[in-house]
Queue: 4 jobs
Job 1
Amino acid sequence: MSLNATLGIVSSIALFIPAILILVFKLITNRSFLALSTYYLVAGIYNLISQNVLNPPLWFARPLGIAVNLLDAPLMMLFLTFFSTSHEMTKRIIWGIWIFFAFEAVILLVAGFSVNAIRVILGPDIIIIIGLSFFFFQRNVRLAITNSKSLGKAIMSSSVLLSYTIFTVVYVFYYLIKNQQYRRDSELVYYLISIVSALLMSAGIIIENKRIKKLDELKNTRKELATIYGKTAGLNKDSRFLKTGH
């Protein structure tokens, strides 16, 4: 088995880890983590198809590869709403997703459901994700220095920023430079960075899950206290009816 094939299979396993963690930690009810788990699942499955570990018919495998690339930016943008600092920012990102879908539709109408369409779409895709992830990365890293509660988000955003920054190099050598050796080398780089970024993301999910669980416990405690003291207040208020007159 070649080095590329070996790393392709290893990267698939690594890509499944964040998706499994999201399921185990029951974070999938959050739309951002649902988008992230979908992103990793489809990428991992397609890697296995690329290495012939899975052998679906060509009529299914080829469109799936194109669909994986079409969903790349929308799924990652939806995940990045998790880092949003305001409701307005979240709305802007959601609008950005719909605009990107419209952009993809136009390109597909012009170039068809083909690799050429993907070549055009992936350029803006990578630039947008790098810009968003850099903004969230620098913000959460700065916060993590003084507040460990932001550490999980800092690691997750660094995973996205690192992977898409390297994807820029992969994109250039795989899609723009027509050289088979460069294409093989770019595949190798893609698999390596997929492994590193997936493991980073997994670490961030584990840390962030602990913070989310603590927040949930705090909310439940507040609800219980509100229920207890609310009932007590009610009894104190109505205790005059229990008093007997002289």
Job 2
Amino acid sequence: MVRTESLPRHEAEVLEAFVRGVSWSELWSRRDEAFDVSRFDELVARRLGGEPLAYITGSTNFYGLEIRCGSGVLVPRPETEILVEVALEMIRGIDAPTVIDIGTGTGCIALAIAAKRPDALVFATESSDEALAWARRNVDGTSVRLVRGDLFAGCPRADLVVSNPPYVAIGAELPADVRREPSAALYGGPDGNEVLDRIVDGLAGHGAVALEIGTREQAVHVASRLPDATIHPDLTGRPRVVSARC
């Protein structure tokens, strides 16, 4: 058996539950049952080798939704749930709002908004064919409308534009597993602001915007380009989202 001391306990449990074919919450009641130890060892070795956990299991939980993902698409992260919370607050009180999720990736943000606001018309744009394939798997059977294109292409004017764009500066150090995710979804130019600036440049005519950012400097930069912008921290107190009415 592969030694799992170097693997966070929760991740080892997630992999064991995956091999057993049960949910993590069911794991403890099934621990006495035999399972495929060699398969578990294989998956642990992959994780220790730097493969993202969500790529191994094929899905991850985001805002209470099970989101399928794998190679070629950005893994949804808990901090992005702050972006969903801000977005929902910004469309509160608007009947049947139109929302555009730019660079949707797996579709997780668009799906979370649509789940909480079934009256909303939610568009999700994506320029990567690989990411779009994952988004299609996730939005199938929902009201979210996928659009293949760059930024706002193919979408109407919206009450809210929301995005978790590439915002990592080229050359920044990232964990090994994050480096396995698509670079186009991570890196936003020399200072990380390239896509953020393009989105801000295209906001004319839209009602509001909420953007995920990665650093305090980015928060200040984006906020300086938007009228009466608000910077929202994540649970660690770090700036995570910039929002504004356009």
Job 3
Amino acid sequence: MNVNGDTFVIEDLAVEVEGKEILKGVNLRVRKGEVHALMGPNGSGKSTLAHTLMGHPRYRVVRGRVLFCGENTLELTPDERARRGIFLAFQYPMEIPGVKVRHFLRLAYKAVKEKELPVTQFRKLLQEKMDLLEMDRSFAERYLNEGFSGGEKKRNEILQMALLEPELAILDETDSGLDIDALRIVSGGINKLIGPNLGILIITHYQRILNYVTPQFVHVLMDGRVVRSGGKELAQELEAKGYEGIRHDVLAAEGG
């Protein structure tokens, strides 16, 4: 397959967890500058895909390839994938008491960029990113995710993404646990980072985040496979029919 110009290509990816096959041949392609949404019901394999893409040891790849700029990332460690420009925003970010946000972000920047900025230069860069995302600068002095609301945890993930400037961002259920106001704020941050050098894969159960972040492409993951792909109107069809309606349509098309 010719992958020139493609940021990210998943080919026939099959993954098992504790001997059970969860992903059964996923195919997906995300180019720089594109926003994709991967939607699916609970248990369809969405989070399995996200964790596999970043190299979580619990998930065993049975077959397939994951190409990033032509390189098979399945052969790389998680930190090597991050240094290549792949970023994962977690569904449930961890709390780290005693570690300030700015200290964590400086360490993350050093690890991913493989260079250390002087303190004053890093502080200026961090403040620029916080201003871009309309975040109060006092946020950087808090302990990482300790006592954070769901919206604050997700905003911190988006701040990290802004600072690291990845080429591919995988947002795993970023809308999970957010009320409408928090969802609007977090989505606004995502929209400010969309650009020609960034491919985004939004993994979500609900259509609601797509009311604020508009994808060019929508994919439906069911039973470990991508069963439908289309434009943003596919998300609206999902909202109207539900996942069972889509499943019925797929079975009918397959003659099942």
Job 4
Amino acid sequence: MSNQHSQLYVKAKQIWSTVVKEGPGYPLELKLQLEIHKQLLNLFQPGTYYYYVFNIFQADFDFVSPGVTNLLGYLPEEMDIHKFLEIIHPEDKPYFMQFEQRIAEFFKDLPFEKISKYKMQYDLRMRTKDNRYVRILHQALQIDFDETNYYRTLDVDTDISHIKKDGTPSFSIIGLDGEPSYYNITETNTLTLSEDLFTQRERVILKMIVETKSSKEIANTLFISPHTVNAHRKNILKKAKVTTPVELVCKALHEGWV
């Protein structure tokens, strides 16, 4: 383990330790937790992905899904927190630290009843086992916590290299169930509520567009006509100030709209 790698782990662990005081006093029923919370994470998968459970107290992974092999080339047993930190692109490691610091600060002041209503997401470049870099969208939701402590998060990393090929990593805090969101937060900005460009129905349709669903598939899922879906599509494009679905997907990812 290199000194740089070790220092990054030490600094990251210091951040995580600010939101956890002690380990959980009961075993986590991992499979049950995953089934319950994967839907709560409100994920889309526009590419290859894997998911894992991060133990905040131990500062390591409790579980890594087999999908990590398809995305990064590593076996699940090879992917621990040290490997994760090691393969972050050197230029993106400072962003990673800034984003994790923001997350810790946000959750320290969040009321207990709202903890499960926020999803964190940011993008980073990660090195695969065959020494390529892919851009992943990292999304995380608190799944194991009580009134005084945080224990575990459910995290999903999705390959978005085909959608966002370059650019500065961006970080967003996404409110669920009507909670406010904070989009594309920079390192110097304070948390400022983002204007909600879209109606609730438009957000649902936007998410399905990012998932590459056709108008017919969206109509069948929502029990509305394709004509209504196409009208929503036009409104979404207009509000997003783009002209094509490809531009819309790229902007939605960059701005953290989904």
